[in-house]
């Protein structure tokens, strides 16, 4: 039953991001988890996750992304995977690999794991460990041949920034030797912890341009390979763009994120927006939350948009860009995303891009 | 793709149990027409010719050459997208 009139067409969500814990052995300089982490005592129980995975599948969701923190920190991870798969979802796990052994992976694959994403920080060990704030790199390398013994898809991913961007080509060459199904090269975006370390992470214009050329060349040579070509996906840095991205595919259009304590959020960073409150899967069904929750309805449609956005044909493509970024850069969550050349605040990005003075790294605790 | 090639789904790709979709890592491919029936027969054992013959048995009156061409075209499209290997 619709309780409020809606001017927009309600879409069906397809991606279920389950942050099953905020516990993590890594302390990355650009961690995308909220600044305030949820403590393990408040985490959802196994049966809560089992229930919401079923509700997610009933709502039409296709992919379950188990992430964290480090999902391997949950002793019931195999049960969670079995529940997701049993509900009909495609099960992906995003992991640092810390805590993964051949025996544990065999259990997870038996439970129904279909795709594993292993994150890297750099191609060079000392730098990789520095960025992660822990010695994880060597272990990740030894894990890849172990993962390849199992019938699951493998994605390797690298978050790119000034501290590792000059070794991007070497990283891609290393990744190609391992022949994963997918490779993700994502420039860091400045939310959460990355915003704290922005001065340290911001690449130069020239570095960004070079990285784009390197990634495009890698995509072309892999597409040309008929067999065994790696599918390469890349994320361009917002601060160097002229038009905003369709953040999370549009607010409340494709994605639902459930945090460790059960709060349902339209995106990773939504909690930074003042006045946001999130409904909890302990109290409401996913279907109710998707349709009725104030947080999901907050930036649906175009009623909240400035006149510039409302009358712009690009709104059908970018849905008004990123609300969290608009708030973090302008103090107004309804402002035009400053990435857009039509934003009166667009000029500030040029300043922020050039503010690349060396600052001290801040690792997350 | 030759008629004696043995196609198989790339690891991490599978048909949705009820919808006309091929689930792949981080996405889904919409399947139209007989695409789902064709992919359901891709098991790493059947050749392209065997898949076409099995389809012929399901669709009365179709020309074998036409069916073969359709099967090859679909599998090559899927191969381009990384969902099929042979």
Structure description:
The complex is a heterodimer of chains A (365) and B (86). Chain A has 365 residues and is of the alpha/beta class. Helix content of chain A is 35%, strand content 13%. Chain A contains 15 helices and nine strands. Chain A has helices at 46-58, 77-86, 102-111, 125-132, 137-147, 168-178, 192-196, 198-201, 205-224, 286-292, 294-297, 307-310, 315-318, 323-330, 347-354; strands at residues 15-19, 63-67, 90-95, 115-120, 153-160, 182-187, 231-235, 255-258, 264-265. In chain A, helix 3 links the parallel strand 3 and strand 4 (115-120). The longest helix of chain A is centred in the middle third of the chain and has 20 residues, at 205-224. The termini of chain A are far apart. Residues 1-5 of chain A have low confidence and may be disordered. Chain B is α+β, with helices and mostly antiparallel strands. Chain B has a single domain, classed as Arc Repressor Mutant, subunit A. Chain B has a three-stranded antiparallel β-sheet with strand order 2-3-4. In chain B, strands 1-5 form a two-stranded antiparallel ribbon. The longest helix of chain B is centred in the last third of the chain and has 17 residues, at 64-80. Classes of the chains: A alpha/beta (365), B alpha+beta (86). The A-B interface holds A 14, 62-63, 88, 90, 92, 114-115, 151-155, 181-182, 226-229, 231, 233 and B 10-14, 16-18, 21, 23-26, 28, 79, 82, 85-86.
- How many DSSP E strands of chain A? 9
Q: Distance N terminus to C terminus of chain A?
A: 45 Å
Q: What structural class do the secondary elements of chain A suggest? A: alpha/beta
Q: Residue ranges of chain A: pLDDT <50 for 5 or more in a row? A: 1-5
| Portion of residues within helices of chain B | 25-40%
Task: Choose one word for the global shape of chain B.
Answer: globular
* Topology, number of strands of chain B: 5
What's the overall average pLDDT of chain A, rounded? Answer: 93
- Biggest β-sheet description of chain B: 3 strands, antiparallel
Please tell me the total number of domains of chain B: 1
Mean pLDDT of chain B: 92
**Strand content bin of chain A:** 5-15%
CATH topology of chain B: Arc Repressor Mutant, subunit A
């Amino acid at each position: 039953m619709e309780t409020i009139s809606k001017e927009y067409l309600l879409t069906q969500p397809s991606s279920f991001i389950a942050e099953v814990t905020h516990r993590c052995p890594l302390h990355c300089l650009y961690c995308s988890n909220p600044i305030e982490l949820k403590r393990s005592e408040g985490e959802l129980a196994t049966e809560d996750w089992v229930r919401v995975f079923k509700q997610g599948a009933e709502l039409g969701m296709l992919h379950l992304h188990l992430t964290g923190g480090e999902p391997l920190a949950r002793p019931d991870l195999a049960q969670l995977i079995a529940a997701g798969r049993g509900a009909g979802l495609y099960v992906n796990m995003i992991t640092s690999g810390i805590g993964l052994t051949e025996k544990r992976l065999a259990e997870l694959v038996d439970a129904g794991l279909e795709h594993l994403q292993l994150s890297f920080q750099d191609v060079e060990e000392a730098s990789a460990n520095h960025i992660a704030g822990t010695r994880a790199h060597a272990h990740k390398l030894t894990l890849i041949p172990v993962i390849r013994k199992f019938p699951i898809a493998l994605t390797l991913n690298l978050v790119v920034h000034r501290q590792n961007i000059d070794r991007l080509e070497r990283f891609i060459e290393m990744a190609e030797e391992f022949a994963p199904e997918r490779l993700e090269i994502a420039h860091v975006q400045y939310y959460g912890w990355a915003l704290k370390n922005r001065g340290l992470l911001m690449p130069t214009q020239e570095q960004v341009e070079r990285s784009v050329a390197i990634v495009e060349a890698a995509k072309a040579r892999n597409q040309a390979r008929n067999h065994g070509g790696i599918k390469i996906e890349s994320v361009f840095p917002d601060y160097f763009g002229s038009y905003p991205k369709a953040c999370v595919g549009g607010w409340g259009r494709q994605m639902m994120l459930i945090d460790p304590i059960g709060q349902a959020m339209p995106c990773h960073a939504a909690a930074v927006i003042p006045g946001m409150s999130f409904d909890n899967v302990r109290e409401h069904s996913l279907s109710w939350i998707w349709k009725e929750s104030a947080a999901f309805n907050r930036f649906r449609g175009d009623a909240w948009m400035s006149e510039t956005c409302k009358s712009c044909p690009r709104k059908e493509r970018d849905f008004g860009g990123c609300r969290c970024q608009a708030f973090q850069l302008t103090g107004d969550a309804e402002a035009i995303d400053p990435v857009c050349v039509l934003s009166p605040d667009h000029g500030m990005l040029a300043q922020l891009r050039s503010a690349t003075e060396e600052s001290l790294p801040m690792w997350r605790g | 793709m030759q008629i004696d090639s043995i196609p198989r789904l790339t690891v991490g790709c599978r048909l949705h149990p009820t919808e006309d979709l091929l689930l792949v890592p981080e996405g889904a491919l919409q399947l139209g027409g007989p695409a789902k029936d064709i992919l359901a027969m891709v098991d790493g054992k059947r050749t392209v010719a065997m898949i076409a013959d099995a389809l012929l048995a399901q669709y009365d009156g179709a020309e074998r050459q036409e069916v073969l061409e359709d099967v090859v075209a679909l599998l090559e499209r899927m191969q381009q997208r990384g969902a099929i290997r042979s």
